[in-house]
Write a structure and sequence with these properties.
Distance between the termini of chain A: 38 Å
Helix content of chain A: 40-55%
Largest sheet of chain A: 6 strands, parallel
CATH superfamily of the largest domain in chain A: Response regulator
Number of helices of chain A: 13
Structural class of chain A: alpha/beta
Oligomer: homodimer
Strand content of chain A: 15-25%
Number of domains of chain A: 3
CATH class of the largest domain in chain A: Alpha Beta
Radius of gyration of chain A: 25 Å
Chain lengths: 349, 349
DNA sequence: TGAATTTCCGTGCACGTTCACGGAAAAAAT
DNA sequence: ATTTTTTCCGTGAACGTGCACGGAAATTCA
């Protein structure tokens, strides 16, 4: 079909009303009699009127702004990848009348998240992209946004709040299961080391729990009797990490399979390189620069990527579609592909 | 920075000229003195003028149309995936004033390609997305488009013509190399079967040659002395295919590694399922529905995906950016990621 | 019945470009 | 110096929608 040439004025003529009235019913802002309203609605349906985006944006000059609320992208961390996606998306929706900005918080500090939430609300955004790290507070932010009729999109992980416009993230459980297959290469394993980040009391949401469950299920189904060793390391302190690893290694010198379910696998790379073992298989998550470097060197066997940049880009796009064309996304829950990254395909990621 | 509030009229005032003149230099359509031209250009740079897309599109009401020239997407074939990407991209650029349509040809019939080329040129498109199957004719189409100043973007494979605006495709050589690693799982192989499509005289371009080279290089480096067996099958005739496979199998009953470099690996699935072998490893290319089904069942071990939909979507986007904002893509040659697909991550592709 | 409300609706300008038209200024020809 | 041509530039009407303003019609009140 040809693009709708019919304008708001055509509708006005067909109905014998004026464009002002037609405009009022389109944006249903009242001051229209029920009868006229019906007539206009009918004509719109009948003649297939579609608003001209450009004329609309031009006339109502004001730009919309969406804010992205994510943990601070420390250099080289997972969230820098998200920030990059945001930048790219901002470029595409910018000329369409959407301004993007970012508000960050410390993902290990609940108070900073609360501050960030208030900041977001105070800026009266037209839309929000949220990476929820703290369950309860994210939920309540969702409630507050919903109360102000501000649409929000979730990335990375979900919360129970059902008011979100859309969600973009990785299938947690399935990625853990996949991880099992990549670690084992389909053969049975006898002993597996899971390296975990020390739990943080304030941190209420653990996005890696689902992955761990999927992984353990894979083990149960494909490697019955496999011994699972777990060790906990500090999120950043290299000395503590090294020491913890050395201890496990001393206790189990024959460990050949190592896995981490968060993006910090690069933290144990120094240890791994101090104890080289060509037979060893190491699987981690996310395409951080340091992870990729270790992958190229062969220290890490496989990374599972979730395209964080694409997640936020799609989130912003969804928000733009909603704000501009008020088109809701086809499905609320969208899962990005789980990328298997090896040294042979990492260079074109 | 705030979004450029300065308009063409501001520039006019700054320079003491009129908006008409400013407009003329912006679209450099002549009829302006060198002096005025310089003044305007300087002011534009100085004050950072950026054209308002909406006003522009609104005023110059005419829509642009781009055409996608690809092989006929036979049901379930590789090109249906491209067509889907086109559909999605069309939805996003549609409201921006770009109409997309598709012209198809028989990828095994040169004459049909010639006809398609003429069809494309006769429709006087504003931009073209081209999947070149026939080298020489594609080259000459490129020349003709360039002569008419019609920008074109290549997908899937490249041609020598340097006038293309951009290229989106997979790294052929690297994907073959990757294929070797996935087939062998890092261990040395002793015997490998490569299944190829019978060469077609008229078909001048073979996109799989690069993959084969990469694969053989992997073999040379990691599996020295590995025996390579090749067999040729008809592109579609199931009977011939089955027979050819049976013959190879009879001659080499101990084949454990099978690979195909085109998207037709599903053609040998019936054979594979008639001769089950849990030890066997099979690697193919592209996420056709039938390939994916075989992957789920375990008949195929790994598929290497190249996101054909994303390729054309990005191609169309690049064309749109050029036509609308006349912004050239950051880099001409863009390689999409080589996806490793297994039964464990295929469901969210 | 007339006045005071309330409800509803039409008018007209603005948004930033594009582009055809026509005219002034400069250059060339007589 | 006058006419003709060329070069250059300003003007103003679209494009389709948003929205403020004011006024007509319908309703309520006195």
């Amino acid at each position: 079909m040809k693009q709708g040439k019919i304008t708001i004025i055509d509708i006005a003529e067909k109905t014998g009303l004026s464009k002002g009235t037609v405009d009022r019913v389109i944006h249903n802002r009242g001051e229209v009699s029920a009868k006229s309203r019906e007539k206009v609605l009918k004509a719109i349906r009948e003649f297939g009127y579609e608003p001209n985006l450009h004329a609309s944006l031009l006339a109502s000059g004001h730009r919309k702004n969406v804010v992205l609320l994510i943990p601070s992208p420390a250099s080289g961390s997972f969230w820098t990848l998200s920030a990059e996606g945001m930048k790219k998306a901002a470029e595409t929706v910018g000329p369409l009348g959407i301004d993007c900005k970012t508000v960050t918080y410390d993902q290990y500090d609940l108070a900073s998240f609360r501050v960030a939430c208030d900041l977001v609300l105070d800026s009266h955004p037209d839309g929000v992209v949220l990476a929820p790290m703290f369950h309860y507070e994210s939920f309540s932010l969702g409630e507050r946004l919903h109360a102000e009729r501000i649409p929000f999109v979730l990335v990375d992980s979900k919360i129970e709040n059902k008011n979100y416009l859309a969600y973009f993230g990785m299938q947690e459980y399935a990625s853990g299961y996949l991880c099992g297959d990549q670690l084992s290469q389909g053969k049975t394993m006898e002993r597996v080391l899971i390296v975990r980040i020390s739990p943080d009391r304030d941190r209420q949401a653990d996005p890696t729990a689902g992955r761990r469950t999927g992984f353990l299920d894979y083990l149960a189904e494909h490697c019955p009797g496999c011994e699972v060793i777990q060790t906990f390391v500090h999120p950043s302190d290299p000395v503590q990490i090294r020491q913890a690893m050395e201890e496990v290694y001393a206790a189990h010198p024959d460990i050949r399979h190592i896995v981490m379910f968060n993006s910090r696998i690069h933290r144990i790379v120094p240890f791994l390189e101090a104890h080289p073992d060509p037979q060893r298989r190491v699987v981690g998550f996310d395409n951080l620069a340091e992870n990729m470097a270790a992958l190229r060197k062969g220290t890490i066997s496989v990374l599972i990527g979730q395209r964080p940049g694409e997640q936020v880009a799609r989130a912003i796009q969804a928000l733009a579609d909603y704000l501009l064309l008020d088109k809701k996304p086809a499905q609320k829950d969208n899962h990005v592909h789980m990328d298997i990254l090896t040294r042979y395909n990492i260079d074109y990621y």
